[in-house]
Structure formats: structure tokens, C-alpha cells
Amino acid sequence: FSPRLWECVRPHMRVCVVGGGTSAVQCALKLHRLGATVRLLTRRPIRWQQFDTPNQWLDRRVHRRLRCEFYQLEAHEKVAWVRKMRGGASVPPRYRAELEECERSGCFHVTEGEMVAVDMAADGTLCARVRVESSSGEGHSHTRAVKRKKKGKRRGRRR
Prior knowledge:
The protein is an alpha/beta fold.
């Protein structure tokens, strides 16, 4: 992450981090440590495991067989195969305790949902619409508005 990103974080600033992988969790935790109120938006529950790939890929005997099978597939089959094997983002378990502690603080929230749209109003308000599935399977949308600073004209000296 750019060091300049962390310079603009202010205490109690409201921030939404979109993603459910290691980078998103690391970013959200750092923002919380800097004093921001953070909402981590993920499409599905966070998967707590060391690697994104199945453990069978780490076994040399099985890995060789899988690699041979992969090279024999057509191009479109390879894409589907990789998606199936990868299974989505995961986060190493070492971050779990810190994330749970942050959630208990009340200034950190994990929301499972999907970003539907982001719009900017004429007054500079940034609105993110999020679709959230309830446990009963019914979906509903939330809209969050965040006031964005307008950029003013830079005034420089004339030479």
C-alpha cells in the first residue's frame, strides 16, 4: 500500500474496504489501528486457511498428476478448472484473533454482501449501494453516503 494512503487517515474517519482476501483484511486492520471506523465488505464469509489453493497442490506426488491433467485440457476448460481449484480468497488464521478483537471494539464491522453500485451526486457525496443477503435468503439493499472533499483550484504564483 502507498504510504500516502495512511497519511490521510484521521481518528473516527469512516472507511469501507471491499474484499475478503488477505490484502483487504490487512488494509482494514491497519486502518483500524490508525483510528478509523472500518467496515470490511466481503461477498462471502471469510475463509480462514493458510493458502488459497487446496493442500493437494503441496504434495509433490499429487501435484505432478494434477499438472499433467491440466495441460491436457482445452483453454476454456483450464479457466474453469483453475477457478474450481482456487475456490476464492482466503486469509491466514493468524489474523483472526486481531480481527475478532477489532469487531468487539465496536469500530470495526464485517459485512457479507455485494457492491451493487457506486454513484457520485452533484454535491460531491459518494454513495455505495450494497446488497446483503439475510440468513433467510432474502436480499435487501443498503445505501451508504460518504461526503467527499471537493478539490479546489490550486493557486500558484505567477512568474
